[in-house]
Amino acid sequence: MIYGKLDDYESMGLASLGVAATRAVAWIRNLPADPPEGRFVLDGDNMYAIVVRYATGAPAESRYETHRKYVDLQYTLTGSEAIDWAPRATLAKDGDYDAEKDLLFHQPGPALVSVVKGAGFFSIYTPVDAHRPKIRVEGFESVLKLVVKIPIDRFGTP
Predict the structure, then answer these.
(1) Would you say 88 and 99 are in contact if contact means Cβ atoms under 8 Å apart?
(2) Is the C-alpha dihedral spanning 154, 27, 6, 70 positive or negative?
């Protein structure tokens, strides 16, 4: 997992993550303040973003997830949520991998790290990063965020 303020993306040395990630960050920076929810094509079927608003809750109401085909670049627009992180290898599977959704859920387990994602913060999750979103942060009932799906074979490539 990589975590930080989007304003610090370049100073964190993350331009080395490749053209696709840099293109995703540029797209985020050009969004209106309150974009509509939905799916946005960034590079044909290769890379896309989903803007979503949802209520947050207790950790027990959310599940750890991982992906195989895509890296998630998640960015918080408004509101706040906590996201728990654990190495995928430390959690048991909770069902079968859904290839169409590129989604595998995992059994609950201890979080190695929990990050608070307020407006302006991003996080990046690779296939080895189990993440559990939707966790309520005091003072915030919901979050408006986007998730850019970067194909794993284009992540980190020039």
Answers:
(1) no
(2) negative
Sequence ranges of the domains in the chain: 2-154
Whole-model pTM above 0.90? yes
DSSP one-letter code for 110? -
Homologous superfamily of 2-154:
YhcH/YjgK/YiaL (2.60.120.370)
Three-state DSSP state, 94: coil
28 three-state secondary structure: helix
Kind and range of the H or E run holding 21: helix 19-29
The number of beta carbons lying within 10 Å of the beta carbon of residue 48 is 18
Condensed to tens digits (0 to 9), the pLDDT of residues 27-73 reads: 999 999 889 999 999 987 789 999 999 999 999 999 999 999 999 99
Per DSSP bridges, beta strands 104-106 and 64-66 are: antiparallel
Q: For strand 113-118 and strand 142-151, is the pairing parallel, antiparallel, or unpaired?
A: unpaired
